[in-house]
Predict the structure.
Amino acid sequence: MLQYDIVIVGGGPAGLAAAIEAKKNGVNRIVVIERDRELGGILQQCIHNGFGLHVFKEELTGPEYAERFIVELNALGIEYKLDTMVLEVTEDRKVTAINSTEGVLQIDAKAIILAMGCRERTRGAIRVPGTRPAGVLTAGTAQRFVNMEGYMVGKRAVILGSGDIGLIMARRLTLEGAEVLAVAELMPYSGGLKRNIVQCLDDFNIPLYLSHTVTKIEGNDRVEAVTIAEVDSTYKPISGTERRFECDTLLLSVGLIPENELSKLAGVKLDQVTGGPVVNEARETSVQGIFACGNVVHVHDLVDWVTEESKVAGVNAARFIQGKSPQNGPKIKIKGISGVRYVVPQHIEMDNLLKPIELMMRVDNNYSDVSMVVSHQGKILKSVKKRHVAPGEMETLTLDLTGVELNGMNDITVELVL
Amino acid sequence: MYDVVIVGAGITGSFITRELSKYNLKIAMIDKSNDVANGTTKANSAIVHAGYDAEEGSLKAKFNVRGNKLYEAICKELHVPFKRIGSLVLAFDDQDIVTIRELYDRGLKNGVEEMMLLEKDEVLRLEENINNDVVGALHAKSAGIVGPWELAIALTENALENGAELHLNCHVKGISKNAKGFELDTTKGLMETKMVVNCAGVHSDDINNMVNENKIEIIPNSGEYNLFDKSMGSFVNSVIFRCPTQAGKGVLVTPTVHGNLLVGPTALNVEDKDGVATTYEGLTFINNLSKETMKEMKFQNVITSFTGIRAKVAGGDFIVGESEESPGFFNVAGIDSPGLTAAPAIAEYVVGQIISTRDRTEIKKDFIHNRRPSIHFMDLSSHEKDALISKDPAFGKIICRCENITEGEIIDIIRREAGATTLDGVKRRARPGSGRCQGGFCASRVIEIFAREQNILITEVVKDNLQSVILTGKTNEAGR
């Protein structure tokens, strides 16, 4: 059995930032386990720019952003294993992994940081009817083919879903000489960042059909046509509103799902709304010594926020090992209500509030001129005015609870006030 | 000159081919598709029925009950997953109780063993997720679940190891009778054969009607299904049926041999024999019906949907046996449910007939009964895993992370007899891409391995049929 202080599952932006931060906080035996052939995770296929505006105050491409962390990781001498798959994580912090050179690895860890990221929702989960030809794929898979393998996935495409990867791929395919005929979005608003709608659709005259879904895929070998239709308020297609596009490709950008199969094996409690582990302000899960950060916890819109969150997990995993983190003290829940779909962290350890904490949240619709109000026991702790909030954009809010009288019997709530 | 050409490489065709490969015969199985098991065999309920459904005295009843008994041994010989998990036909009112009693009586007449009528509390003890308003059920312990395409692939692999030929993308355009037998005009050229077995599924009428005046008409009947993620796999323990009523057959809810949950099917007569598109209405219909049976269905866990076409005939019963007007031409037509269950018994019967026409009828001495087990890496102990990786490092590379499938397993199923020739073929044999991400992560890796193994370009890899290319060119060539 191998012994490590911290095992980090996943070498994407979350795992890298957590590893670096843990090392800087005095932990020596750290190993990052990555299943792909290089570090960096999905950033490596995101060759567009726009990464790092918050963390580095400059615009980087995905691989450039990843490279900064990989260089630092190497400079700090942090160990990592590539082409290595974690098969199991247990509640008592044992990790089983596998690779071609070492075979089956059994690792005993003092702390574990889950940083597996997320996967894309597939056709099955959103019930797109029709045939099952080649040419139907998720936007992220298409991105990998185009940007990393150097192959085109089609010549004429329709995109279902206006998530960020879908928007980015609309532009990417267009730049590669393919034609993107339409982007259909089930909701009355886009799930992607405003800047991506402007830069990836508007700038290329690609129409966005809001409140539309795909009602039919045609073609037996390769996609031949895709039909979209408007939906009513219950998301049912409205007959008579169909538009048929002759095309050879349908890309799906219909949501991301935190990848928590390993978390479940470890007995980590999951949040039904985020799909990720329930965590405290330290990003510690319901299982002591198992931390989680990045898209495995909740889907972030910007990698910068992943980095920030992962630093929190890294420093707190270090403190846990060093016996500095308070355990089993009083907790207080944080809940999103009226307009706020969720808040991460879901609860806080009242004895661990050394400095202000960052609340991350998503709203359930587009709102203008609202206040985000944090309250506890009828008292407003913080109120921030927002000109515009949207489901596609994660909101953050810094909350300083030092000196605030907290009562664990009552929740802290975050709500939108119009 | 072949002794026997089997038209159609579905479950019945592959059972018959494998059975025939026991004898000293020159045989070939042909299929118009790019893989075996590519029609109804890949899209059905995957259930080995007990045998209480079919009318007493029908071929369906006879072959169902006999076929069910044959399953254990054949699946063991060929290392195919089969689980005898039993089935429940649920009753929700007095009329249903009458129906399940009728089914029970019919089952007894058909020779079905191990059936019992259960009371409400007994049903709920077996299946806690069934709606509380259930009033009783018919429990048939002999019902089971199987991997239908894995079985057809395994049968074909074994038949090929025993000397049978397989010709894919071989579409029969015409058949003529002559003094020696039959001449098949196919897209792969002319084939001469003494005998023909027509196992062409939804196209078995076309094949019969090329030869015989006594016409067959297949009524294609489509069934749509939803497949759920493994997190729902233990939602039910047995195959759950509703009572057939005037409103229809109701949907079934069943675990699959791989631990997923399957819900479906619809039953709708359609025009197009190859029309395997799913519909919004169909998928909504089965979801709604399943909600009536079960307490809580989590539809967000659906990972894929599919449609299969049943080869129904007007008479309702199977058409199995030698044609009276064309000796040497055998029909295995109208094989809708319980065709999968019946297939081994049909093969036993048809091959018996074929062999009885020959002088030498003993099984050849060098017949290989067992198929080399497929490797399921994740089922091995840590020690066995280590040993396999040190022998072949490809087993240390997990390609499909939802199902934990290694590169070693993928290479193995490509290199076997009747090995994968398409991306879907790889998926059906080794399961990469069958999990919750549906190939999102592993597709590019599998394509790479496949192209390398087959020594073809990445852009030549197809999903399923010959024209179903996945990648349309290199990025720097697009639009030019």
Observations:
- The mean pLDDT of chain A is 94.
- Chain A has seven helices and 28 strands.
- The longest helix of chain A spans residues 303-321.
- Chain A touches chain B through 55 residues (CB under 8 Å).
